[in-house]
Design goal:
The chain is of the alpha/beta class and 417 residues long. It folds into two domains: 198 residues, Rossmann fold (3-Layer(aba) Sandwich); 185 residues, P-loop containing nucleotide triphosphate hydrolases (Rossmann fold), CATH 3.40.50. The strands form two sheets. Strands 3-4-2-5-6-1-7 form a seven-stranded parallel sheet, sandwiched between helices. A seven-stranded parallel sheet has the order 10-11-9-12-13-8-14, with helices on both faces. Helix 12 links the parallel strand 10 and strand 11. Helix 2 runs parallel beside helix 3, helix 3 crosses helix 4 and helix 6 crosses helix 8. The two termini are 23 Å apart.
């Protein structure tokens, strides 16, 4: 059934409507349509919605409508990762284009001193738990005027062990406030948090944007573990001209191993994981979003909380730990009506885990025919000396055989973030 509701009908104010029109946000998404009226009415809301469903516009529009300059920090948005904090900050600033507010991101991995200065004039803060705790302990953040608290990707906050920090932060806030909780799933601990700190919350739920009719799932294997990288290269070379490729590994070590070996044979790829500096993570993610680098090898930091458009294929180089993690990974593709593929590589040692993951859904994933492949010798890299060599190899264009895509300006999805 086609959605005929308009943003104006949801009660959004004119300055935000102008931005929606300019950014080509034509119709509200399901989570926006269901949650915005309650948010604008000042109700506590629990929104169950996946990354990319449009929840940022939902809570950010409500925040912008209710706060003004000159009254200190009036809204606090807590996110699990630095990347998500940056993304939410950018989107919120865009939506406040015609109602200017002081909006700042607060996260670790960068100098704290500029943040201290920004906090003195901030109206909206988007932050990660660890750095917010740092500011609370230093007494450099004043939260007594906060009217709205948002807990974004709350199940991810739980997975990363941040719930005790979140509770510490909540205890610094006024009791008379609006609390908005958004989460892809609502496990017991998240539900407990809601019951403890929310006032008669309204529950809203949205179906994921991934279209199961347009998402094709395959597995290849089992193959000898020594051939797993060679199989990945074969499949990548077949698919790399069709769009962005996202490769998931379970550890930083294997993320770097795959990315560096790809670069070593002339395939332009970059890695993304929590061991990088914030500036490097931001640079690599921007290069991927701009399609300057079309292959990203990542830990699950990229599976949640990042709305990366244009991913046509997702590889599970390492099997995820559980079914929920698998769903979040493959949810990076086949979004907003576009087709996508999810490919899982199964090594000899993966057999039992693979069976556990898919024993109840064997009909949703098809077996791919393992091609005849020639083994590619891989290198085990370690220490900072190789990081220098890897960086040098990436900058040496004569060793690259990949096609250089034209750079393009990053565009927001028409569904917003």
């Amino acid at each position: 059934m086609t959605n005929t509701t308009t943003f104006k009908q949801l009660g959004i104010i004119e300055p935000i409507l102008r931005v929606c029109s300019e950014e080509k946000f034509i119709r509200p998404t399901e989570i926006q349509e269901k949650s915005i009226p309650h948010i604008n009415a000042g109700k506590d809301v629990i929104g169950e919605a996946a990354t990319g469903s449009g929840k940022t516009l939902a809570f950010a529009s409500g925040i912008i409508q209710r706060i003004n300059k000159g009254q200190g920090i009036q809204a606090l948005i807590v996110t699990p990762t630095r990347e998500l904090a940056q993304q939410v900050t950018e989107m919120t600033r865009e939506l406040s284009r015609y109602k200017p507010l002081n909006i700042f991101a607060i996260y670790g991995g960068v100098s704290i001193n500029p943040q201290i200065q920004n906090l003195k004039r901030a109206n909206i803060i988007i932050g990660t738990p660890g750095r917010l705790i740092d500011h609370i302990r230093r007494n450099t953040i004043n939260l007594k005027n906060v009217k709205i608290l948002v807990l974004d990707e709350c199940d991810r906050l739980l997975d990363m062990g941040f719930i005790p920090d979140v509770e510490t932060i909540i205890r610094q806030l006024p009791r008379n406030r609006q609390t908005l909780l958004f989460s892809a799933t609502i496990p017991f601990e998240v539900n407990r948090l809601a019951q403890k700190y929310m006032d008669n919350p309204i529950d809203v739920e949205a179906e994921p944007l991934v279209d199961p009719k347009k998402l094709r799932q395959f597995y290849y294997g089992p193959v000898h573990d020594s051939l797993k990288f060679s199989l990945l290269v074969h499949l990548l070379r077949y698919n790399m001209k069709k769009g962005l490729s996202l490769i998931f590994c379970n550890t930083r070590r294997y993320t770097d191993f795959v990315a560096r070996n790809l670069a070593d044979i002339g395939i332009k790829a970059t890695s993304l994981h929590g061991g990088l500096t914030q500036s490097e993570r931001t640079k690599r993610l921007n290069n991927f979003q701009n399609q300057q680098t079309k292959i990203l090898v990542a830990t699950d930091v990229a599976a949640r909380g990042l709305d990366i458009s244009g991913v046509t294929i997702v590889f599970n180089y390492d099997l995820p730990e559980n079914r929920k993690q698998y769903i979040h990974r493959i949810g990076r593709t086949a979004r907003a009506g576009k087709a996508g593929n999810a490919i899982t590589l199964v090594g000899q040692r993966d057999n039992e885990k693979f069976y556990q993951l898919f024993r109840d859904s064997r009909n949703t994933i098809k077996k791919g025919e393992v091609p005849h492949i020639k083994k590619i010798e891989t290198k085990r890299f370690s220490s900072s000396s190789h990081r220098r060599n890897f960086s040098r190899a990436q900058n040496n264009k004569s060793h690259r055989r990949s096609i250089k895509p034209k750079s393009r300006k990053v565009q927001y999805s028409r569904y917003a973030v």
